[in-house]
Amino acid sequence: MASGFAQWGNDLYTGRRSYDIVGRRRTWYVISAVLVLISAVLLVRPGLNPGIEFRGGSEFVVSGVATTDQQLAIDTVQAVAPSESPRVTTVGGSSLRIQTAELTNDEVEQVKNGLMAAFDVTQDEVTSAFVGPSWGKDVSQKAITGLVAFLVFVSLVMTVYFRNWRMAAAALIALFHDLLITVGIYAAVGWEVTPATVIGFLTILGYSIYDTVVVFDKVRENTADTLDQSRFTYAEKANLAVNQTLVRSINTSVVALLPVGSILVVGAFILGAGTLRDIALALFVGMLVGAYSSIFLATPLEVTLREREKPVRDHTAKVLAARAGAVHAEDGDGAPVAVGAATPRATAALRPGGHLGQSSQPKRKKR
Question: Which of 170, 200, 265, 327 qualifies as a FRET site for 158, CA 20 to 30 Å off?
Fold first, then answer.
């Protein structure tokens, strides 16, 4: 199986096998648009669930409990503050975390005593803390500042490195696509947004841009001489680049997703650790979506932007016209041939499964 995968990767790199990813870009655009629309709806309803770090309030942690009955904790809090709707989370197998709106000092003491009696624990096993909303506001502002600075820096670096603003624009669109879908899925799951979640959101931006830059580097290499030849269009050469980096993108994504997936399972279902769970979910979804966008969205977007340039547009029309003429010339019986139709000898190198960059002419036998 390993040898078969290696052969498949080698065939993709040499052009013996190819998938028309760029040519089917409208399909990927529709898929991405639907996912973004669904994510936008999820951000409105049900919306994100901000943690206590962002909304502020009181928090109680009860350790070493014999039962993790959440209703018992809710009843205990409501006995002190009837109008309160506490959020109770099981942490591990023997702890409970209870979050409420801001309570007075007297109410905090009453809730602590009530939890001690309800769960039959000592005073040392019930802790309380208050988090002001100003702390969460400060975290949010710093996260937004970091995001804006990151995007500006990435735009400048990519524009200078690739000497082409279109690649930077396509990469930024892919970044927003990844971030919005990840946040939307997080909203659908309903887990609280914590500082660890924000860290996860910011981390996936770096992963996504890294994978995209690798693909774009190959696109630049393949398309450097596009206007100096008349066999292939810009889109076809860019499509070859995506195929040549496909195996690398898959391998990188799998290697990154396996440990993050393990952390997600351990944090969510075994330990019940909120911090591990929150950051792992953001990373897992973001990496998965980032792998998709770097293959099916970033390069097709770049090709769409480049084909709006007159030299590239004229070159594409010239190649297609010459190709159509060659097809008509090779139609032996004089029957009309549709534009773009292929004949085995003339266009073997232009088919998705052809040998891009290699001669399609049959070899002559030596006498």
Answer: 200
